Amino acid sequence: RGPDDAKGYFENNIGMYFRRLSIVDLSNNASQPFVSESGKLVLVFNGEIYNYRELKTSLEKKGHRFVTSSDTEVLLKVYEEYGDSAVNYLRGMFAFVIWNKSTGELKVFRDRFGIKPLYIYRNRETIVFSSEIKAILDLQPESKVLDKESAVKYISRNFADDSIDTFYKDIKSVKPSTFISIQKGSVTAKQYWKLEWGENKKFDEDIFRSTYDETISLHLRADVNVAASLSGGMDSSSIVGSIAKNNLLTDKLQTFSITPPETFDESFWINKMVEFAEVNHEYVDVSINDPSGVIDNLINLHDEPFQYSSCIYQYLLRENLAKKNIKVLLVGEGGDEVLAGYKRIFFAYLHALYGKMDLTSFLKNVNKGATLFDYESSNDFLKHFLKYENILKNNLSGQENTSAFDLLNNSIVEKYGHIINEPIYINSYEYSSNNFFELLNKHISIRNLPHVLRIEDRNSMGKSIESRVPFLDHKFVEMVFSHDVSEFMEYGENKSMLRRAMRPYLPDEILNRKSKSNRPGSNAYIVYKLLKHRIDDLIKRRSADLHTFWGSDLLEKFKKDSNEYSLQRADTWFRFYVFERWREINQITM
Known about the structure:
The chain has 24 helices and 16 strands. It is of the alpha/beta class and 590 residues long. The strands form four sheets. A six-stranded antiparallel beta sheet has the order 3-4-5-6-10-11. It has a five-stranded parallel beta sheet with strand order 14-13-12-15-16. Helices cover 42% and strands 14% of the residues. The two termini are 29 Å apart.
């Protein structure tokens, strides 16, 4: 997945191949596949082990000798020392495979949150693991068969990466936190880690900040240039603030921002953070007149359809950073999911307070919620909360853009009613006080984060940049989830704990910022202004073929939506274009 080296290891019925992006120990000594000193173990490893220095010191005390300064060798030595439980010692993002020549066992591990991708394909004779689907398609061309349920989830509901299923029927994603063992045709899988909650700790600003600072410090370890993205929000600003105020780099931190067309302008907050932290900052021009070529390129990179136009701009930023020789980029992904950054979660927060019979906090936050959501009175906001309670009791969908349904073929709506009617957070709302944590966990494991991580990984690695997500360090996440539910949105604020802890690191304008913007990019602008003629042409050119999924009056509806500049339907039209171009480019078998 990187341009720096490529090697393979082949023995009888096992083959291992690796493309290296050199980040730690740039010498050839750290190349992969990496063979143990005894010659018995062979490792291929995608990712980073951030606590490799501490692990190396511990292993040296146990008598282990090292010939490289890489985290790769540390990982293999940790496995030699602790066996399958080695994964419990790792802080990082990883997908790795270890071949034991002596026992004929293959061991496969994926990190706790699925930051690094890993796919599996099986038939009666072959098992293939890969970081990307395209390698499996190349080895097993017969696997290029559409998984229709994944397709319907995507085009109708905007769901993607929410299960182990992919858009290819026989290719699956290895579930995060999973360890797989293969020997003599027998395949076993088990979960080695689970996010828990319920310790009910009260917030301590110093403990929170020191844990956070340690996490950021670990994520800066690299033998190449490190930079950070900066959006003007709490997450990216907190990363930059911790690095700058603690002098965690010998040189000034480089930060980068984008301001795409028809996107909410966050430059006010970005500029405040740049001035406060005294970083070297640059606004990167990602304007584009015709995104069709970039979309085709992204389809090849991702192997599957993607959801939003923000993916385009994210990729263009990384394309620019690659030209500046940036190899590692710290980003704020995961902050919203872990720290309760979405306003919609506030209703679950109130429900949790009510369930605990913490009526004082409940009433106080009802008043705060009225301000947060711009209601005229607390009574109006309370009525909205009671609607949420009804959604909770009856396991309804709640907030969702359902405008796609009118564009679908009627037979699709009938055949896949279980998908069309599925609550957006199915089974996540037990009528109990823990539904707040359950909802956060669903954001992390199903509905939000998996697709965000896929986009981040493919866009970055596609330009040979390693993207790092410190908000998903599992020790930090465990610390966050150990807190009492009341701490998460105290004072009617999203990310309340982060706001309180980051006071020394951020300017008041960011600490007190209430608005939350979407990811940079506008589906409406892309669809109605830049892709309009291409969508027209696609509908006309493939009118018969489109009826597999779509209704018969697409062209008329697209013209109407385009004339009205329908914001809601723009999301569907964007997915329509990406999905149908993906089918064309990959010649998908139905």
